[in-house]
Design a protein that fits this description.
By secondary structure, the chain is of the alpha/beta class. The chain folds into three domains: 248 residues, 3-Layer(aba) Sandwich (Rossmann fold), CATH 3.40.50; 149 residues, Glutamyl-tRNA Synthetase, domain 2, CATH 1.10.1160.10; 114 residues, Beta Barrel (Ribosomal Protein L25, Chain P), CATH 2.40.240.10. Helix 2 packs across helix 11, helix 7 crosses helix 8 and helix 11 packs across helix 12. The chain binds adenosine-5'-triphosphate and magnesium ion (2 copies). Adenosine-5'-triphosphate binds next to helix 2 and strand 8.
């Protein structure tokens, strides 16, 4: 694959360094601790940490924790774990809530300069008088309160003398601006709630647009990278920074967010899936969260590789989840040990094999990696094969077992159909005869055998539970739901299918989350909730690669 050239952000930064606009690159990844990180955040993480790394700079992890209503310490911890797991180490761990005093002083500075005022209109009035794209806004009757009076009112807001919703602090910019964000945006609102870090020290909290640039300024961030929907907020970002004395002047740049097929990524929706128990938790393997992908069997390197593949652009697009799966499959193909497991067992008896006799055949652990060695597998008279691997009257082109056919049992022997038994119209056992000269799976006379089946020994196997996953939503592009429909209307009823199967005994030693290939079924990993009594394997990704290269 030809290596991609620098992306537009790399070009900007290289230029800034060359021109001496900045001496050192400082970026940040700024999550709000109101949910778990998802694959979209991974893109932002790879980008911000990647840019710092590439240009010898620094990247901070900063919690944008300015809204106590939805934030929680649980999220603060989960986010750090996920960033570390992805393989990144932040320079500084920062919290926007540590800057509340400084934010307040800058708000006072704006008020003193006549650039902010306390507005006592109702939230509804403020919304209505803001206007629309086709209709200019109407100035508030409180807009011309003198600065000294506003300073006192702001102080009283801070002291808790007003109720929630009774008043807000607004920037005094331009109610006629074609950019709605510039029509006297709210800077502070009253929220009489404890904050997970500042307790009840504050009852007014800053709005995102007001706080974000100041956070960057305090931390010396040079390139503040955010998603495209903040492009229209950039004039406001600049306005706040230009109208008070800040220690440093950051710049905002926007890139296209990641949208992935067959899923949603809004934290509100993900939280709703968790709270309504549609999924088992934030780390349900069907979730697009980092913790869900981890439990599904994704590796940090496969996710980073995916972020690399999708690149950085300035226009929104939808990426097929198959590309993500492809990245994992390619990696596991090289690294995952092969094992045999039968997910829908059917008894297979070798009639000419002596009862109780075991032949330890040799099975390679990974054909892609000879250094992975081999393991002994106990071949014997009583085996299980996949029920789908036998048909009484097969269609044309079926090369597995059927009356008259001969197949290879992987790593074992060639066997030929002899008979089968049915109960209530269902096949319950297949009887075969082995070619005892075909140990290892090759016919002594060189006859060609097309079908190869996987199997387990009935006396040397472990019961397993396999969880087979499919898309959480049936619609490919969840931003294009039908009029009047809710995202939950598109839930896939078969996003999780659980089956009880049998696997080779070595599966008892499987490490939680480590990738294993079950021959012909795909890549799996042991779910961390497994016990000695119940081994649960999550299918990370099936074998077939539908991703067109
Ligand atoms: P939500 O709107 O669901 O709350 P958010 O974007 O507000 O999500 P944040 O915690 O604020 O979530 O996100 C932290 C950082 O991750 C932001 O800089 C944001 O731009 C980036 N980010 C979030 N979602 C995506 C995405 N889908 N693709 C790329 N970057 C993203
Ligand atoms: Mg948000
Ligand atoms: Mg956000």
């Amino acid at each position: 694959r030809p290596k991609r050239g620098p992306n537009f952000l790399e070009e900007i930064i290289a230029q800034d360094l060359e021109d001496g606009v900045v001496q050192e690159v400082v970026t940040r990844f700024p999550p709000e601790p109101n949910g778990y990180l998802h694959i979209g955040h991974a893109k932002s993480i790879c980008l911000n940490f990647g840019l710092a790394e590439k240009f010898g700079g620094r990247c901070n992890l900063r919690f944008d924790d300015t809204n106590p209503a939805k934030e929680d310490q649980e999220y603060v911890e989960a986010i750090q774990e996920d960033v570390r797991w992805l393989g990144f180490q932040w320079d500084r761990l920062c919290f926007a809530s540590d800057y509340f005093d400084q934010f307040y002083r800058w708000a006072q500075e704006l008020v003193q300069k006549g650039l902010a005022y306390v507005d006592f209109q109702t939230p509804e009035e403020i919304r209505r008088t803001r206007g629309t794209l086709t209709e200019i806004g109407v100035e508030s009757p409180y807009r011309d309160t003198p600065p000294e009076e506003n300073l006192r009112l702001l102080e009283r807001m801070r002291n808790g003398e007003f109720e929630e919703g009774q008043c807000v602090l607004r920037a005094k910019i331009d109610m006629k601006s074609p950019n709605l964000n510039m029509r006297d945006p709210v800077i502070y609102r009253i929220l009489k709630r404890p904050h997970h870090r500042t307790g009840d020290r504050w009852c007014i909290y800053p709005m995102y647009d007001f706080a974000h640039g100041y956070e960057d300024a305090i931390e010396g961030v040079t390139h503040s990278i955010c998603t495209l929907e903040f492009q229209d907020h950039r004039p406001l970002y600049d306005w706040f920074l230009d109208n008070v004395s800040v220690p440093h002047r950051p710049r905002q740049y926007e890139f296209a967010r990641l949208n992935l097929s067959h899923t949603v990524m809004s934290k509100r929706k993900l939280l709703e899936l968790v709270e309504s128990r549609i999924v088992s938790g934030w780390d349900d393997p069907r979730m697009p969260t980092i913790s869900g992908l981890r439990r599904r069997g994704y590796t940090p390197s496969s996710i980073r590789r995916f972020c690399d593949e999708i690149g950085v652009a300035k226009a929104d697009s939808l990426v097929d989840v198959e590309l993500l799966q492809h990245c994992l499959r390619e990696e596991l193909n090289k690294t995952a040990p092969r094992r045999m497991a039968v997910l829908n067992p059917l008894k297979l008896t070798i009639v000419n094999w002596p009862e109780g006799h075991i032949d330890l055949v040799e099975a390679e652990n990974n054909p892609e990696d000879p250094s992975a060695g081999t393991r002994p597998l106990p071949f014997g008279r009583d085996l299980y094969i996949e029920a789908e691997d036998f048909m009484v009257s097969p269609p044309k082109g079926y090369f597995r077992l059927f009356p008259g056919s001969e197949v290879r049992l992987k790593h074992g022997y060639l066997v030929r159909y002899v008979d089968h038994r049915e109960e209530d119209g269902r096949v319950v056992e297949v009887l075969v005869e082995a070619d005892l000269e075909s140990r290892g799976g090759e016919a002594p006379d060189g006859r060609r055998i097309k079908g190869t089946l996987h199997w387990v020994n009935a006396h040397h196997c472990v019961p397993i539970t396999a969880r087979l996953y499919d898309h959480l939503f049936t619609l490919r592009d969840m931003s294009r739901m039908e009029e009047g429909k809710d995202y939950k209307d598109y839930l896939n009823p078969s996003s999780l299918v659980e089956v009880k199967g049998l696997g080779e005994e070595s599966l008892r030693d499987a490490e939680p989350l480590a990738g294993i290939q079950f021959l012909r079924h795909g890549y799996f990993c042991l779910d961390p909730s497994s016990t000695r009594e119940e081994l649960i394997f999550n299918r990370s990704v099936p074998l077939k690669d539908s991703w067109a290269k």
